[in-house]
Amino acid sequence: MDFYMDDKNVYQRLENEYKKHGKLVILFDFDDTVHDTYHRGEDKFSQVRELLRRWRPYATLIVHTVAPESKYPYIEEYLSSRSIPYDGINTDADVNLGTRKIYANATLDDRCGLATMYHVLKELVERIERGEVVRD
Q: For the chain, which domains are there?
C-alpha cells in the first residue's frame, strides 16, 4: 500500500507539520463543503463549519473555489454571517514556494476525500486542544 493511503500516516504527517510550524494551512471548498450550493436541500455542512471554527487559532484557512471573482462578495458575506473563519479566497497563504501551486497542508473538499480529511483534522485539533500536541 502506498504510504499516504494509510490514514494513520496522513495524520502523523499533519501532526509533524503542526509541531514544526505551530500551525497548518487548510484549504476548504465553498460549494457543497460549507455551503449547500447545488442540492438546495437542508443545510448539511455544520460539521465542517464547526471544524473550521476549531482550527481558527491553529491554522491559516483559505477558501479554494472555482467560483468567479464576481461571487466573492457573496462568499464573504455568507462566511461572515455564519462565523466561518477564513483568511482569503483563492489566495496564497503566508507560505510561498515560488510556484503556481497554492501551498496547503490539508484540503477539505466534497470532491476529494472530504470524509478522510475531516476525521484526520478533527482528531488532530482535539489533541491540540487537550494539550497533547504542541509545537516543538
A: 3-128 (3.40.50.1000)
Region of 26 (left: φ > 0; alpha: ψ -120 to 50; beta: rest) is beta
Quick check: helix, strand or coil at residue 94? coil
**110 grid coordinates:** 466534497
C-alpha cell at 118: 475531516
What does each of the 136 residues of the chain score in pLDDT, given as a tens digit? 788 888 899 999 999 999 999 999 999 999 989 988 776 655 678 899 999 999 999 999 999 999 999 999 999 999 999 999 999 999 877 766 666 777 899 999 988 889 999 999 999 999 999 999 999 8
Question: What kind and span of H or E run contains 49?
Answer: helix 46-55
Rounded to two decimals, what is the model's pTM?
0.90
- Name residues whose C-beta falls within 8 Å of residue 58's C-beta, 6 or more positions apart in sequence: 18, 22, 23, 24, 125, 128
